[in-house]
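Cont'd.
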Amino acid sequence: MMRFLLLFSRQGKLRLQKWFTPLPERERKKIVRDMTTLVLARKPRTCNFLHWKDLKIVYKRYASLYFCCALEEQENELLALEILHRYVELLDKYFGNVCELDIIFNFEKAYFILDEFLMGGEVQETSKQSIANSIEASDMLQETMEEYMSKPAF
Amino acid sequence: MPAPIRLRELIRTIRTARTQAEEREMIQKECAAIRSSFREEDNTYRCRNVAKLLYMHMLGYPAHFGQLECLKLIASQKFTDKRIGYLGAMLLLDERQDVHLLMTNCIKNDLNHSTQYVQGLALCTLGCMGSSEMCRDLAGEVEKLLKTSNSYLRKKAALCAVHVIRKVPELMEMFLPATKNLLSEKNHGVLHTSVVLLTEMCERSPDMLSHFRKNEKLVPQLVRILKNLIMSGYSPEHDVSGISDPFLQVRILRLLRILGRSDDDSSEAMNDILAQVATNTETSKNVGNAILYETVLTIMDIKSESGLRVLAINILGRFLLNNDKNIRYVALTSLLKTVQTDHNAVQRHRSTIVDCLKDLDVSIKRRAMELSFALVNGNNIRGMMKELLYFLDSCDPEFKADCASGVFLAAEKYAPSKRWHIDTIMRVLTTAGSYVRDDSVPNLIQLITNSVEMHAYTVQRLYKALLDDISQQPLVQVASWCIGEYGDLLVSGQCEEEEPIQVTEDEVLDVLEGLLVSNLSAPVTRGYSLTAIMKLSTRFSSVNRIKKVVSIYGSSIDVELQQRAVEYNALFKKYDHMRPALLERMPIMEKTATNGPSEIVQTNGETDSTVLDTKHPPTITQPPSQGNDLLDLLGGNDVVPVIQTSLPTKPPSAGGELLDLLGDLSLTGAPPPAPASVPSVPMSQPPFLLDGLSSQPLFNDIGTGIPPMTAYNKNGLKIEFMFERSNPNPNIAVITIHASNSTEADMTDFVFQAAVPKTFQLQLLSPSSNVVPALNQGNVTQVIRVLNPQKQQLRMRIKLTYTYKGSPVQDLAEVNNFPPQSWQ
């Protein structure tokens, strides 16, 4: 399973954090610090895999954002790259040419999309269309509320 | 109170902050507003406030006061509230919080909600961070949902079940019935999550595994699904670069791996499909290679036929040549896993692997290095070592320590010749000397002492290396030890192998003294050089110079150096007669398979009593340079003198041992105490002897089937030899002599000495006593150990001295009648 998934900028600012195992706050902060240090130190044309403690770290850079996940020993790293790519595609489809700012201002949406794609560190749905439909339907539920309240929910 | 600002507004505002302090101020203001809003129990804006709190939490600010608010949001009827509430719960709460349990009821209700998206939220939250108690409480609900026909919920329930099983493995049983027809679903989401669930169950429980293999016939089902995926046409919904649902394919391959492991039938059933996937998958993009990678892992792990295995390793070989770094990395990792089992197949790719040592990528270099060491064997050692040494020269510091250790290990196992071995060690010490691990210094020293014929060559090369560079501590330590030991060979200029260099005693002492004063030398290194200088006092003639150096360091600030110097001084002043024996050439140190130090401790134990036993000083055999009466005896240079176990036999940090022993002598100034416990070898040995050793006694009166022999029998003195093979090292013969006296008077001051030809090495341990009682009332026993690496015929000359009825008696004899088994 995947242990965690992090998104951070080239300056090391965290944009999204998804944890699939229970960890205390202090531990999470430390891991984020370690990951940003390790990944940002990597030279441009090195491979996308690292070893950290007993986990395999897979990272990929998309424009100004680093997508970084940690896998257990028996997981397939090459497939993890595909998983990260699929997530970016989902975001791209939703936001239309997604960029870092979209994720900053709509972080909760990024989480909702992720929760339709992964659960408990495993892939939940392999069809892009299916995920897009679910998100759309959920958004509709929310909007109905908003229309009813005639003001944006948040 | 005005409406709290909207989320996006807050984000925009915070991003305008120019400094950390400004940001912190904004955040604190907003937090205060949010807190008061929470206190007012404002339902309308709770959602907005928690969302803002989550944003601030991501920036790194504390948000714990929002935890209860998340619960209230979850309990709300509005979907928007629930969405943010559950998100907040997943981010802010972890198992340690008490509020966690309060969620259970809400989740239970939501699992039964009429809207599937609400059910989905509940399942997702439970499946990501449900604690064991929550899982226990809600497992039933999850199981119910696993049987629904709604594929949206079914797939989520499956992964939620996986989480429940991970948290509470005992609950696995209850999900079994629901898995019955999971694989007949058409929906890929459900298929994928079902495979994950089945994988989890099979991995955790061997019973489940065999159930699924036999009763459910899982393998044929999976093979069928996989086949459909490969053979079916283009499916836009699941296509990735021309491959149909790679995620599902990989998962199926992984489950097949678990099912096929150590099971012939299952493995056979999947042979075809594996071959098909391996040959038909498109390899131009990463996704195809991901599938191939998983296929290779599966093939190597199950009981596949050999053709398939070769196919798998060839795929890995092709990976090694791929332009994509990730694929090369993955190939090296897999090869490392298979090198033990399919060694020959991997050897075929050795040259490609060695090329990877030159890759620019650090991760790849590391893998290639590990794999290269695994591939080294007796045949390719020379070529491989050349490449590895070149790598050692040019690699990053982070690799040097591991590479150096690897080189030493490989050299030890497969060295084609002693000279090659020593050259290799020298090369490592000079290029990566400061990265070599601490324990290699004693190992190297032991190796060097064992290569008797290479001593002159070794010490010359080390000396030259020292002249170039004294900054690398392990090199300096080994070099100073060797110079201390073999300084005489260095100065005499004899060397068969190389151009001998002309060095004077003063030059050598200059170098060693230089080490003592240099800032580059570590304290340990200084200790080594001081001891080396001291040892040279018996090998060189410029003793006065050495005396001066030693006395200077008697007042050194470094306590270790000071102590050594003081004791060496004492050696010069009061115990000069003992100096030659103490500083003699070291005997060869044996390598124990089990535990080096215990062996050394053992001989130390022996020497303790030898040295303390000064009432009957063992006849000290002088080192060759000072003449040797035994040598005279044996008429020439063809015999190596007996090496009485002098102390210390431990490598130079044995300066400590030296000190311990001399501690009694020099500090008190009193005459050495009578031998406290003269062990009657082999019966009573100092306790620590037995501590580290394996249960085999090394000294055993009962010969192992080798008949004892009478070596000498004259004038009432009879000496018998009893044989025993030394268990750790078959080249060593252990002989116990038994001296008995059939005359009517005791023989006192009895001393036994022996000498052997040059190709042997001999070690004489301390005798049980120096009095051979009259009328065969008792024996004196003593142990001799003979190293006979060339398995030549053993012959020995012995010299006996004793006092009989007041007058000294001395006799010489040759012993040639050794039984063949003792030296073959």
